[in-house]
Amino acid sequence: MRQWWPGFVALSAIWGASFALIKVAVDAGMPPVWVALWRCVLGAAALWTILAVRREAVPREARAWAHSAVVAVLLNAAPFVMFSFGETRISSVLAGVWNATTPLFTLLFALLTASGERLGARRATGLALGFAGIMAVLGVWRGTGSGQPAGNLACLLATACYGAGFAYTRRFLSGLPHSTTSLATLQISCATAELALIAPAAAGAPHWPGAAAALALLALGALGTGVAYILNLNLVRTAGATVAATVTYVTPLWSTALGALLLAEPVHWNTALGGLLVIVAVVLTRTSPRPFRA
Question: pLDDT at residue 277 above 80?
Answer without folding.
Answer: no
